[in-house]
Amino acid sequence: MKIVRPTKVNDRALAQFAGMTELEVLELAQTPVTSAGLVHLKPLKKLRQLNLFDAPVDDAGIKYLAELPELRALNLGCTRVTAAGVPFLMGLTKLEELDLSMPAVTREVLKSLEKLENLERVGYCERGPDGSFSGGARPVQRWSL
Asked: How far apart are CA 64 and CA 18, in angstroms?
């Protein structure tokens, strides 16, 4: 089952999704869903793709995403998630694609993602030495320690 572009979904409406345990794809980009609403996603154990682009979620809500064992694609671009929320993603062992296009991404954050062995692609932007942002999508590089 797949739900695409439910633009009127908010935290209260998201509670209705909790019973849709067969849901695999959920597009919540540019919705008013906040971190408080993400708790309702915990029962969606078959969810494989989640798009939260430009939704007002922050680090507090990311901990609920860590309970989605089948998640393979996650878009957190233009959210309020910071580097402090990234450790919650480390439990998403099947994650293959991750968009972290936000100013909070640093080289250290990108390096920490090497622990996600299935991660193949990361969207990001990072602040350059002059304060400007650069970004794009790139394959995950594996560093030797």
From this structure: 13
